[in-house]
Amino acid sequence: MIFNTVCARCHEGECSGRLSFDNSHEPSTGHILRHYPQASGKGWLQRELFVILAYMKEKCAYYPMQTPIPPQRVWDGSLLDRMTTMPESSYFVPLGPLSPGGYHIGLEFDQDVKVTIQLVSENFEMEVEEYLSSGDRHLDIPFSIETPGNYYFRMYPQESARITRLAITATGNGGDHH
Known about the structure:
- This protein is α+β, with helices and mostly antiparallel strands and 178 residues long.
- It has 2 domains: 2-59; 71-170, Jelly Rolls.
- It has helices spanning 2-11, 25-35, 43-59, 77-80, and strands at residues 74-76, 84-85, 90-98, 101-109, 114-121, 126-133, 138-145, 149-157, 163-170.
- The strands form 2 sheets. The chain has a 5-stranded antiparallel β-sheet with strand order 2-3-8-5-6, with helices on one face. The chain has a 4-stranded antiparallel β-sheet with strand order 1-9-4-7.
- A hairpin with a 4-residue loop joins strand 2 and strand 3.
- Helix 1 packs across helix 3 (43-59) and helix 2 crosses helix 3 (43-59).
- The longest helix is centred in the N-terminal third of the chain and has 17 residues, at 43-59.
- The protein is globular and about 50 Å long.
- 24% of the residues are buried.
């Protein structure tokens, strides 16, 4: 989650599909610590962040995550707690494949929040980027997909907040969530 919420924001546009970073771990440590100081003294985390960066740059894709998509595309708080960078409360949630059509992202929070919401394709195309304020601890964000593929949800709250439910639903105008 750390890489996809902190690092990927800048590095998504830098993939090459042909570069190799196998021997660059040591020089990258200063960069990692400058942008994510919580990795200080954690060699394993620095190495993990480097490996994910190398994968993104070489494959032009997000590092594979072993996170199953829940039935009906409804994530509860316990699943979402594993997809956040606490205490920052930034989220990165693999949504799985979406077909062309209309959809809604439904969010429930533990408190009202101001957030930046992003929906990003597997090819790093920003489909949705909105700064929103919840009302009555809910947000409903309509969006449409033109290109089929795997999609990812990202959220950056202005203050620490917890998502208690996330649901992706098709609106009936061609969207299919299978």
